[in-house]
Every structure is written in structure tokens, then in C-alpha cells.
């Protein structure tokens, strides 16, 4: 990055090095470039950036190494970039029972929105086998995800790994929007690989959701206007995709295979909020215990389309490849291989 650009935008360049626990805060000034040695100093830098001038961008470079943390890395200020070099790995210490990275408001009901966040290259390990709670003990509305996103606008996650979380890999909620998740892996999490709620315009591209205990993808609570493209969902412990109370969702060129239950389950919640305007296009649905099940009625749901997709090996335990009311489940150009 050119020095002129740094000076022009008053970027604070931070270098985060390996830490286990807390070291005393260092003074951070707007005019200096600061080497941050621990999470305490990082938190001070983020707070300073917001307090002094919310338009200042903070760039955090994470050097290779294993970072064992005893508290959540909280990003609750706007205009933050985190760039990790290959080999940088963050591990949650034993019995912390908190998210690894939390982006946005941690209030029970968020009162503000965080904007313009970019994170790339980091590997996150939630150490689920050594946590004993899905929730933060003194904030039971916060679940212990690898990355927890609440009330955030314009977030990009690129080439991240979220694994072994006590709850979900990546969870997005509270009216977040305009989010891009690219080239990332969500694996071996206690519940879902990714779970998106009450948000819109989330674009998930070329990601893998593998061997999560429940679903690879879970969508609910008025989630809408979003696209999953070229994703692979493999060997998830329940369904590949769980969806209810969602609309205008596109699955383009995705592969769903080896799910222990249906490749995709589309239903409605307790308030009869179903799904509508759902499109599966050019997908591959292979060797699941059931294909795509629409377990809802035309009163609750509508306009579910499956187009140009291939199916093989899903008719197990009496389950079928495509199952749902003809009035709402439309299909054309699909290939079913017996």
C-alpha cells in the first residue's frame, strides 16, 4: 500500500503479534503507526478510532502464529480491516464460553449499526470440546459462534475458516445487510455451518459447509433477498439446508451431498411463516437421505422452483427426490439419475 494513501486517509496500521492473555495497554495516537501486541491493545485502538473520528479507517495485520484468546475479539466500530497472513490462527481458550469474534452491537437489542468491515485470511477455532455452554453466561442472548454478526452493514469475509464453534460457524442477525462471504470454510461446528436470520442481501459465494452437527445452512426469521453460489455442503449431520420464514433466496450451482437427512428442508415456523420465491438452479443433489422436501402449504408458502439440477442417490428410507405440493413446488429441466 502506498505511503501517500496512508497519509491521505490517516490509516492507523496495527501489527497484531502472538498473545496469550493480557499485557498493559499502550497509548495510541492518531499520528503514529502502532504495533499492537495483544487483544487489550487492539480493543483500545478500535475504541480510539471511533471516539476520535469515525471516518478514520483502522487496518489490522495479523502475523502468522497461534493466538489463544481468553475473551472475545469485539469489533463494534465502523471502518475496520483485518488482514491475516497465511498461518494465522485464533483459538478460544478452554471454558471461555464466548464467541471468538463478535462484529457489531453486543446489546440485547442493538441500538446502532456498524459499517464497512473487511476480514480476510484468518482461521478461527472455537475449541467446542472444551466449552460447556452455547451462550455467554452473563449475556444469554449472545451465542458462542466462531463469528457472530449483529446489526452490521457492508461486511466482507474472504478466505476465512470457522470451525469447532460451540454454537455456529458464522451467524448473521439483527437486520444486517449488504454482506459478502467468499471462499470460506465452515466446518465441524456444534450446530450449523452458517445461520442467517432477520437480514437481507447476504451473498455467499464459493464456500464449503462441511460436517456440521445440524445443517450446513440455516435460514429463518424473515431472512431475504440473498444468493448462495457455487457452495459445497457435505456430510452435515442433519439437513444440508434448513429454511423457513425466508423469501427471495437463490441457490445457484451449489452441491449438497451426504446429508444425514434431507438435502433441503423448507417449512414454516410456529406462526405459519413459510418460504416464498425460492430458486434452486443448476444444483447437484447427491446421496442425501432425501432430496428437497417442501413441508408447507400454499397458504403459507409459494413460488419454489427447481430448475436444471441433477439428483442421484437421494431416495432412501422411502424418501423421494422432490417432495411437496405441486401448487407451490415447480420443477423443470432437472435430471434424476436412478
The radius of gyration computed from the alpha-carbon positions, rounded to a whole number of angstroms, is: 21 Å
What is the helix tally? 2
What is the percent of helical residues?
under 10%
Q: How would a textbook summarize the main sheet?
A: 12 strands, parallel
Number of strands: 35
User: Could you give the order of strands across the largest sheet?
Assistant: 1-2-5-8-13-16-19-22-25-28-31-34
Structural class by SSE content: mainly beta
Mean pLDDT: 87
Shape: globular
Give the distance, in angstroms, between the N- and C-terminal Cα atoms: 55 Å
Question: Keywords for this structure?
Answer:
single chain, 338 residues, mainly beta, twelve-stranded parallel sheet, eleven-stranded parallel sheet, 45% strand, globular
Overview of the molecule:
This protein has helices at 3-9, 39-52, and strands spanning 12-16, 58-62, 65-69, 73-75, 80-84, 88-92, 101-104, 114-120, 123-125, 135-136, 139-143, 147-150, 152-158, 161-163, 170-173, 177-182, 185-187, 194-197, 200-205, 208-210, 217-220, 223-229, 232-234, 241-244, 246-252, 255-257, 264-267, 275-281, 284-286, 292-294, 302-307, 310-312, 322-323, 329-332, 335-337. It has 338 residues and is mainly beta. The protein has a domain at 245-338. Strand 1 (12-16), helix 2 (39-52) and strand 2 form a beta-alpha-beta unit. The model is unreliable at 1-35 (pLDDT under 50).
Amino acid at each position: 500500500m502506498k505511503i501517500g494513501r496512508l497519509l491521505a486517509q490517516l490509516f492507523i496500521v496495527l501489527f497484531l503479534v502472538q498473545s496469550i492473555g493480557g499485557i498493559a495497554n499502550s497509548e495510541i495516537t492518531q499520528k503514529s503507526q502502532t504495533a499492537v501486541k495483544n487483544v487489550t491493545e487492539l480493543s483500545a485502538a478500535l475504541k480510539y478510532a471511533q471516539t476520535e473520528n469515525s471516518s478514520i479507517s483502522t487496518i489490522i495485520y495479523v502475523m502468522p502464529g497461534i493466538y489463544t484468546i481468553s475473551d472475545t475479539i469485539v469489533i463494534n466500530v465502523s471502518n475496520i480491516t483485518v488482514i491475516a497472513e497465511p498461518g494465522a490462527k485464533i483459538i478460544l481458550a478452554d471454558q471461555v464460553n464466548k464467541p471468538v469474534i463478535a462484529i457489531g452491537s453486543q446489546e440485547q437489542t442493538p441500538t446502532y449499526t456498524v459499517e464497512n468491515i473487511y476480514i480476510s485470511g484468518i482461521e478461527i477455532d472455537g475449541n467446542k470440546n472444551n466449552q460447556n455452554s452455547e451462550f455467554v453466561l452473563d449475556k444469554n442472548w449472545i451465542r458462542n459462534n466462531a463469528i457472530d454478526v449483529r446489526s452490521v452493514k457492508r461486511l466482507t469475509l474472504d478466505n476465512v475458516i470457522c470451525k469447532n464453534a460451540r454454537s455456529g460457524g458464522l451467524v448473521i442477525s439483527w437486520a444486517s445487510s449488504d454482506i459478502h462471504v467468499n471462499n470460506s470454510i465452515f466446518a465441524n461446528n456444534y450446530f450449523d455451518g452458517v445461520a442467517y436470520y432477520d437480514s437481507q442481501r447476504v451473498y455467499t459465494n464459493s464456500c464449503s459447509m462441511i460436517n456440521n452437527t445440524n445443517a450446513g445452512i440455516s435460514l429463518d426469521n424473515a431472512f431475504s433477498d440473498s444468493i448462495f453460489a457455487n457452495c459445497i455442503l457435505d456430510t452435515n449431520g442433519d439437513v444440508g439446508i434448513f429454511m423457513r420464514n425466508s423469501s427471495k433466496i437463490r441457490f445457484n450451482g451449489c452441491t449438497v451431498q451426504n446429508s444425514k437427512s434431507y438435502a433441503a428442508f423448507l417449512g414454516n415456523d410456529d406462526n405459519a411463516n413459510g418460504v416464498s420465491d425460492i430458486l434452486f438452479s443448476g444444483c447437484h443433489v447427491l446421496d442425501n437421505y432425501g432430496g428437497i422436501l417442501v413441508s408447507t402449504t400454499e397458504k403459507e408458502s409459494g413460488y419454489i422452483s427447481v430448475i436444471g439440477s441433477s439428483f442421484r442417490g437421494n431416495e432412501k428410507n422411502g424418501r423421494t427426490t422432490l417432495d411437496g405440493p405441486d401448487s407451490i413446488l415447480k420443477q423443470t429441466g432437472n435430471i434424476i439419475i436412478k
